[in-house]
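[Q] Does anyone have a clean structure-token version of this?
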Amino acid sequence: MAELAALEDPRAREVNERHGDDHGVNLSKLRALAKRLKTRQELAGQLWETDDTAARLLALLICRPKAFARDELDVMLREAHKPKVHDWLVNYVVKKNPHSEELRLAWFADPDPVVASAGWALTTERVTKKPEGLDLPGLLDVIEAQMRDAPDRLQWAMNHCLAQIGIDHAEHRARAVGIGERLAVLKDYPTSPGCTSPYAPSWIGEMVRRQHDPSRGGSALA
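[A] Here you go.
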């Protein structure tokens, strides 16, 4: 904890706080610390229990993802109030855990929109990597009906799913683009030069173009 405190950078905190995160540790330095510590499951648990955002991020980098029980991950997600902690928990731990599909189904239907956003993030992973068994038209139905009025983090996750359906599944691309155009979610989101807009029709169009022309530069914002 003393070492994490020594890495505190006021400028990093200012940037992080604009995204809802309350820590001032440069993530590159945090990753370097994790690389030095290597995998340490017991220490990860102790760091998580501090409820300190930087400590929890470090915990997620040094833990053993497959070591967590289903209920442990459910509790952790509900405790992960900061966006970066939530994001890293889902992407670095839950996706590598044997209970990920069970949790996807449970969280997808959860009344808490932040918890539900994790279910949508796991669903988006399946849209891309393992779509067999998913009801893609049904997902588009839900997105069409609910995304416009969804709370921010849930809306973002649903929008990502919409974009990936359009990017990865040509047979649903026209409908995905049409839904994005009608709902206009994130259409005016500020996008840095060289990054792809999170507005689904633009995102789909750009990523499909890159599939046919790998030399295109830039990176998707989301």
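[Q] Thanks! Anything notable?
[A] Confidence is low (pLDDT under 50) at residues 217-222.
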